[in-house]
Amino acid sequence: MYRFLSILLLTINSLNGLAQTSQDSAAATPETSKTQAAQGASAQSLLNQADVLYSKGHYADAVALYEEVVAQYGISAELYYNLGNAYYKSERLAPAILNYERALRLKPGDRDARFNLEMCQARIVDKIDPMGMFFINRWFNAIGNYFNSDSWAGLSIGLFFLFIGCLFAYFFARIGWLKKVGFFTGIITLMFSILSMFYSAKQAYQINHPDEAILFTLSVTVKSSPDQSGTDLFVLHEGTKMKVLSTLSNWSEIELEDGNIGWLESRHLEII
Amino acid sequence: MKDMRNKLIPMLFAMLVGCSHSLFAADAVSFSGDAPKAVIMGQYFNLVYSSNTEVEDLRIAEVSDYFEILYGPSTSESHQSTYINGKYTSNTSYGFTYVLRPKKTGTFNIPAATATINGSKYKSNILTIKVLPSDQQGGGNNAPQRGGASQNPSSSASSSSASVSGDQIFIRAIPTKTHVREQEGLLVTYKIYTRVDIVGLENPKFPEFKGFMAQEIDLPQNRQWSMENYNGVNYQTTILKQTILYPQENGSLTINKGTFDLVIRVKNRNTRTRSIFDDFFDTYSDVKKTVSTGSLKIQVDPLPSGKPADFCRVAGNLTMSSSISATKVKANEAVTIKIKVSGNGNLKMIPTPELTFPADFEAYDPKVDNAFKNTTAGVSGTKTIEYLVIPRFPGTFEIPATTISYYDLSSRSYKTLSTKPYTLEVAKGDGTSANIRSNFANQEQVRLLGSDIRYLKKNIKLEKVKTPIFGTLGYWLCILLPLLLLGLFMIFNSKQVKANADMVKVRNRKANKVAVKRLKQAGLYLKEGKKEAFYDEVLKALWGYTSDKLNIPLSTLNKETIEHQLEDYKVGEDIRKEYMDILQTCEYARFAPGEGTQAMDELYKLTMDVMNKMENTIKR
């Protein structure tokens, strides 16, 4: 009996701790929100200015303003999207691709950003066919792109709650059919919860360990070793997306979507 | 008779002539004069008036101020008959030749001569003759060999055999301008100057006009030779080639040398085989000589800055006009829009002005018709562009204007020409037109006119960079807590069940004791003769026992449940019956008077017996 009590106490303690942290953040928010509101006004005016410049065709100026907002006030998927548009219109495909990718990181379900990204990718020099993927695999990844990491995380928690509810129903219901319903729904909700947990984890990993990069230099020869004397493997052009596997001093080992691996100097790359 | 004959011949002749006259009566009378365009001072030339009909009275104008009539007129007559494809034609021409010698240098007009032909008066054309000064050096020894002048047979030493000096024959390239603007046309004339007889021109190598766009001017098939005084010497000249050049580059452009192989006929002066005939028959031989023109330098200035975007790379002057066949049509009816660009300049450069039609129009490639003429003044003409469009759907459509710009040489500025914008009202087609689309439903796919990125997004909510929720402590707690809750609840529940089970056991165990105690109490009541209390106690003992023993809550306790439970516990039917009988007896006896103590005693014993039996059957 004593043991149970202690466990209960422990959980209550931890709950308290959680509440406290949330309270802390709640206490902190009024201040930050105030400053944010002050910033928000000027950021909003900058954004409006940039929109006007964009609609008038002064794309380079719009780029400068959007970049200023990114640097000083904060980010959002829509901001990255607009910045990508401005870069695209000023014929700078590599930064456009970078910003669309960033927008998609924050909001993977953004169809406009995905459409524009595809437009960009159709215009760059290198056409890289991704390694053959089984269609179920593709579907699986496509579903993962419907929400961002946090949405998946929330969904997984919600589903887990439902699962627990079903377990309660299964264990403690005295009516036979309720037990059955509880059992099967429980299994299904648990499966979906784990799936969304997986998606959330996948995206969270990408955000916490960004390893994808866009090539910013017009043309780069990829070497077989982190050295200028290395054998020339292939030539890449501006805007190509790649995965950074490792870095060695100022060289990066990269892998293309078609599986080719090589080394190039890190200064050519911009991490998404 | 003889007389007759004498008369007859002229009569016949007259008839013939009359016939021929009547034949020619249909033709217009022609009367014209001809003379060389240039003559050299002191040398005589022919002035010829000719007509296709007999001339009765010819009077030439007074020219004695400038020319001396040496001889004339000498008349001549020539007939020409042709019979082609069964058609007979005949020409007669009458010529009157005067031999004249100029008195002064300069350019003079010979006024029209008058002639009476068939009773009416005719006037000839006015002739212009240029009288060139005589050669300064050589004193006309080496006179030109063509034209009206006769050849001087006693040639000087300069015309030695097989060698012709450079100043006797050369070719000049003459530009009209040497300082032009880009795209401004200039004319380069290649002219041959000769004082010797040219038999042929072989292998002409005209330079490539690098940096220019060249337009050659068509020259007449027969070269027109004329006299020209160049550097004080008279030459026979003719134009070999005339080209209009439009410079395409800036700076100093060079037109390279051109080379020509000329075959010249020179008189042999071979002294060894001099025979008596040599004085009469000169022998000639053909000599090949290569001459080259000098190279030309043309200074080209760039066009001034501020070129309009629609600059069509033409310097000159242009006009543009447009017309439309109809502005109100029915759907599926063709409309033509005609654009005319005309003027002078490098017209071949003019791009086809592009009209933008609404997407619902079926537009065909324009028909372009270039009517250009290369003249010495430059390329001039008209470019006609005809667009044929068929509006497929009713509505009101705008066809915007299109513009081209050119550099106006006279005002030295850029000028923009524009077509007219048109508004086309398309009514619904009547459906009878043959060119209706074979579309059964009046629907069609949305056509993609182009592709572009999607537009900007509004309502941007900025946020700070934040770590994802997944993997944080809060997230895992959110997962763990309900699990923990479930665990706790399950543990608590199982304990409760256990505890409950314990309670049942205890009660079960104690059931007999409690019942025995109650029965003892009932026994006491029996001895005391308290009938009501006795039955009450027995009932309580029975009810309590079954409740404890069978784990039935008192609230749900009645006979039916007890009977069911006993059945479940596999209590024998006789015991059940006895038990139910006792319950019934007790309930009746409680309220019924008159039962003796003996019956009560019996019931007491029976109860004890049943309970013992039940205790033995329901072993827990």
The first-to-last residue Cα distance of chain A is: 54 Å
CATH topology of the largest domain in chain B: Immunoglobulin-like
Beta fraction of chain A: 5-15%
Strand content of chain B: 35-45%
Biggest interface, and residues per chain? A-B, 54 and 38 residues
Number of helices of chain A: 8
In short:
The complex is a heterodimer of chains A (272) and B (620). Chain A has helices at 2-56, 59-72, 77-89, 93-106, 111-123, 135-144, 149-172, 176-208; strands at 212-215, 219-223, 232-237, 241-248, 251-255, 261-265, 269-271.
How would you explain this protein's 3D organization?
Chain A has 3 domains: 2-123, Serine Threonine Protein Phosphatase 5, Tetratricopeptide repeat, CATH 1.25.40.10; 135-208; 212-271, SH3 type barrels (Roll). With 272 residues, chain A is an alpha+beta fold. Chain A starts with a helix and ends with a strand. The longest helix of chain A is centred in the N-terminal third of the chain and has 55 residues, at 2-56. Chain A has helices at residues 2-56, 59-72, 77-89, 93-106, 111-123, 135-144, 149-172, 176-208, and strands at 212-215, 219-223, 232-237, 241-248, 251-255, 261-265, 269-271. By secondary structure, chain B is α+β, with helices and mostly antiparallel strands. Chain B has 4 domains: 26-134, Immunoglobulins (Immunoglobulin-like); 169-301, Sandwich (Immunoglobulin-like); 320-402 and 421-427, Immunoglobulin-like; 501-617, Four Helix Bundle (Hemerythrin (Met), subunit A) (Up-down Bundle). Chain B has 6 helices and 31 strands. Chain B has helices at 2-24, 473-528, 531-550, 559-568, 573-591, 597-617; strands spanning 31-34, 38-40, 45-51, 57-59, 67-84, 87-102, 106-110, 114-117, 120-123, 127-132, 169-175, 179-181, 186-194, 197-205, 212-216, 226-230, 233-247, 251-255, 259-267, 284-292, 296-301, 311-324, 328-330, 335-344, 361-363, 367-375, 378-391, 395-399, 403-408, 413-418, 422-427. In chain B, a hairpin with a 2-residue loop joins strand 5 and strand 6 (87-102). In chain B, helix 2 runs antiparallel to helix 6 (597-617) and helix 5 (573-591) packs antiparallel against helix 6 (597-617). The longest helix of chain B is centred in the C-terminal third of the chain and has 56 residues, at 473-528. At the A-B interface, helix 1, helix 3, helix 5, helix 7 and helix 8 of A face helix 2 of B.
